[in-house]
Amino acid sequence: MSTFQNTTSTSIIFLLTGVPGLEVFHTWISIPFCFLYITALSGNSLILFAIVTQSSLHEPMYYFLSMLSTTDLGLSISTLVTMLGIFWFDTREISFNACLSQMFFIQLFTVMESSVLLAMAFDHFVAISNPLRYASLLTELKIAQIGIAIITRGTLILTPMVALLKRLSFCCSHMLHHSYCFHPDVMKLSCTDTRINSTVGLTALITTAGVDSILILLSNILIIKTVLSIASLKERKKAFSTCISRIGAVAVFYIPLISLSFVHRFGKRAPPYVHTLIANAYLLIPPPVLNPIIYSVKTKQIPRAVLKVLYPSGTKE
Predict the structure, then answer these.
(1) What is the mean pLDDT of residues 55-59?
(2) Is the Cα torsion angle 151, 189, 274, 179 positive or negative in sign?
(3) What is the mean pLDDT of the chain?
(4) What crossing angle do the helices spanning 60-89 and 140-163 adopt, rounded to 10°?
(5) What is the pTM of this model?
(6) Any long-range contacts for 22-26 (C-beta under 8 Å, 24+ apart)?
(7) C-alpha distances out from residue 268 to 165, 188, 200, 294, Å
(8) What does the pLDDT average to over 153-164?
(9) Cα–Cα distances in Å, from 175 out to 18, 26, 187, 302?
(10) pLDDT value, residue 292
């Protein structure tokens, strides 16, 4: 018989989970996680600093890339404390309000990243289909307005989803399945009817990642169609290469995110290790780590600008 009593949300302490069954190896497991965090934080910080300080990168494409680096930094920092707290100090407890705050910022930066990827796809489409009006369409004011719209969109969509968790009561185990607070994970522990929460959460996922991924796919199809009709063979290869790299970056972001969300909602009969593996894939192959690599390899100006930041006296022409 369960020893847990019906508990109101304000008095709850959740217990986060590292890697089940491998607790004695958490210190060693933390090494690759630390490497990933160092890579994410240093890579995105360098790109962001280079774009801010180098006037040659004050263009729409790089402004959007700076937004992407900012969201990646926010996403990394949102999980850093609880992740390393578990692996280094076995600090697993987190209060309900702290859990909601972490959940909100993880979800917010995730939605913002999805929106930025969509904005970058739009930027690429305009540059290919209407190059003469590119500068007039994507002015600094328009880009700033897009940035504000991205933050507003995420806040408006996610606030009801997170706030609705406060109406729930919890009378079962308070053990979460991840090293961070994830909406479906918290929702599953409630002994209250969660159909409204599940519907709102699924709606938020569909109207952000779902809609954005479809629009990004359509934009790439239109880009390819435009290139095939007007470009030379050399330009076609360049455009195809760019589209493939963009699709790869988008896939790295969307596939783990959507898989993790759907397994929590519809994979109730799945073995526990399935949830753990997908959650680890979402953390071990994150956009914050791969985006700086993908866009640095694809864009020659970024590595040059980063080298100027690191070695200002050695890169003067």
Answers:
(1) 88
(2) positive
(3) 83
(4) 30
(5) 0.87
(6) 23/90, 26/86, 26/87, 26/88, 26/90
(7) 20, 10, 19, 35
(8) 94
(9) 11, 18, 12, 43
(10) 84
* Alpha helices for the chain (secondary structure H): 26-53, 60-89, 96-129, 134-137, 140-163, 183-188, 195-205, 211-230, 233-266, 272-284, 287-298, 301-310
Q: What is the pLDDT of residue 208?
A: 92
Q: Which residues contact 260 (CB under 8 A, 6 or more apart)?
A: 182, 278, 279, 282
Take residue 20 and report the two structure tokens written for it. Answer: 């089940």
Phi, psi of 175, deg, nearest 5: -85, 115
> CA 99 to CA 94: how far, in whole Å?
6
As a whole number of angstroms, the distance between CA 147 and CA 145 comes to: 5
Task: Tell me how far apart the alpha carbons of residues 78 and 104 are, in angstroms, rounded to a whole number.
Answer: 9
Residue that is written with structure tokens 């519809």 in the block: 266
Alpha-carbon torsion (103, 112, 63, 213), positive or negative: positive
Query: And the tokens for 8?
Result: 């109101």
Tokens 């953390």, located at residue: 283
User: Measured between alpha carbons, how far is 19 from 245 in angstroms, rounded to an integer?
Assistant: 32
Helix (H, G, I), strand (E, B) or coil at 296: helix
**Residue (of 157, 143, 269) closest to 209 by Cα position:** 157
